[in-house]
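Hi,

I'm pasting everything inline rather than attaching a file, because the server keeps stripping attachments. The sequence lines come first, and each chain or strand is labelled.
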Amino acid sequence: MMISRFVLAILLVCGQSALAHAEEDIFAEYRAMFGDDSPAILVEMDGEALWSTAAGEKAVSLETCDLGLGPGVVDGAYAQLPRYFQDADKVMDLETRLLWCMETIQGLDTIDLRDQPFSEQGTPQTALEQLSAFIASRSKGLPISVPQSHPKEVEAFESGKRLFNFRAGPHDFSCATCHGQEGKRIRLQSLLKLNSPEGARESFSTWPAYRISQGSVRTIEWRMADCARQQRLPGLIFGSDFAIDLITYLGVQANGEAMNAPGLKR
Amino acid sequence: MASPMRIRATMMNGATEVKVLMSHPMETGQRKDSSGALVPVHHIKDVVAKHNDKVVLQAEWGAAVSQNPFLQFKFSGGAAGDTVSVTWNDNKGETRTDQVTLR
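And the predicted assembly:
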């Protein structure tokens, strides 16, 4: 009786870890089938076109936008975001920086974009998603190097670490509740330990990503908003310090890892 | 007009492997949008792939094929300078043809 229960316990444990890896194998196979291709490429091409399209009151393109490496420099820009920007006097991630460029360089009214930064399932991708896919693709293979040289960058990291462990909402969930241990999963989705370099590297290097289940490219701000939703927190304001600080916390931990975005995820 | 298809064709051991990434919403006609209204049917009905002028693949697609279809197939033969073209027609009468030259 005791022996069979023991055997049953072992089988259950083995079954669980096999299940946690099975889901990853399916998508690894799917990625291998694609090879260098990915549905995200279609969105990247749209983003590239959008980058050089004149828009806004000033009828200019985003080609003089400084993403941290100088005006118009796109290659390698995503790998060093979020960072401090002198002209805005704040730490910005790619998406907030793009909005800033749209407002100041193009004189574009971004109220609709801030209100609905992400596309609904089945609808065309938003400008932010297209631009994120394009800009991230230009950092592919380059090492992540989120800076910590400015005091505000350090502050963002420290704040991100605090927020990661901050329990809130009706379930009293923090990010650490799901992402603070090794080898855990929710239903069939395996969870990375995001307060460790290994987990942060795997996560940060593959966002933005084409989400197969959504049929769209999703950005890291989207991921933060969706996590907040799953934690049953109040709706996350797009471009908030909450999101930027957490993204900084992940990025700094991931420093050194080769960027591999846009990724391909479930 | 729909976004261009990405076609990659590689020759190996007397055969050519073709990978095509198509941009298409592929609506089944059964999905409802956020306001509760049914999203109308809009998907690719048939696909034709040609090697120079010879048809090497014909496919009839329906609701089971998902958004932004990825198609991979092989045909025997193929030499540098040959063209591989892929054409799709959808239920709304829209069509798209793209081609590549083998190198």
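The mean pLDDT of chain A is 90.

If the labels don't parse on your end, tell me and I'll reformat.
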